[in-house]
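#help-structures
NK: newbie question, is this the right format to request a structure? protein is Glycoside hydrolase family 10 protein
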Amino acid sequence: MGRVSRRAFALAALSTLTSASGATAVPQRRVATEMRGVWVATVSNRDWPSRPGLPVDRQRAELIAHLDTAVRSRLNAVVFQVRPTADALWPSPYEPWSQYLTGTQGRDPGWDPLGTAVREAHARGLELHAWFNPYRVANHTDPTRLAASHPAREHPDWVVPYGGKLYYNPGMPEVRAFVQDAMLDAVRRYPVDAVHFDDYFYPYPVAGQTFDDDAAYDRHGGAFPNRAAWRRDNIDRLVRETAARVKRIRPAARFGISPFGVWRNAGTDPLGSDTRAGVQTYDDLHADTRTWVREGWIDYIVPQLYWNIGFAAADYAELLHWWAEVAKGSRTKLYLGEALYKAGDPAQPAAWQDPAELSRHLTLARSYPQACGHVFFAAEEVAADRIGAMARVVADHYQRPAKPPR
């Protein structure tokens, strides 16, 4: 089924649930288990804390407010970013305290944000998924701005500047081992419900720039037909190794990843989606997300389907169908990443000015048994809900509570 017919199918399915007033009348159903998550981003103080250097009581109050907002919205999981830039929101022996807490990387904030988040989330019946960014070191290229004890300063050969940022080199086995050790320290210390990676593996392409991993490729890439295959193998190894170590350390914890929503366009690969996206994770980020699902390497995947139904280059309806087909028969659960941040943003297409757009996504997803829930980006927008899009989702779909899938 191509893009045109997929859109026709979506519109037909939605039209059967449209009232005379034009509102989507969604019949409530009993849902025993369904992911209803929200991302809480800490990088650049995106969602929390509202700014660096706040008093401890204020930081704690803001964090708890996000948890309480999630409960009021009948959500059941919080995906909390605890390692935004090769740093930590817990007392880590591997990496410095995050600058987003105090304004100075390495400065002790005087409390334990991750420990508090786990305890307070569980007290409210929320799951806490610890969200890690594996390879991003800094949103600048000056190593001297990092804490003096930062591993990137102790091992400058591990670091690649690219696109105005610093990254650990995924092609170095010692880097892959270190970032796992640093992340899994949190899993040992706290009863987190899941380990969560976002969409950053090799960095997003920057025109006119080259990610300089020549030395690592010369040393480790000889068995591969080309650099791209070697890079994908590096990321595959990170995923497989992390999954195995999570299970050894905390068997009940799950491992999930939220990649960019397009694996490959059909114009590149007949197995790809009927899209014309400018980024393809397989080719550009060297993340073979389809294989991770089909092989069952991860417990859940949350593709970031951050487009509206009918968007020409990447139609939500087309990508929902594609991911459902990928997940069919796999042990990997499929959740859908939702762009709540676009709702009411005047810079976005007209569809995002309609408070019902996101509710339509959830209605359409019910046509696919593989779709086991949704995660919303992000916490600040759940709290602000500028045009009532989240309130519409709650009214249409979340009138009754649900537990997260296991």
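mod (FA): yep, format's fine, and the tokens are attached above. The first strand starts at residue 35 and ends at 40.
NK: thank you!
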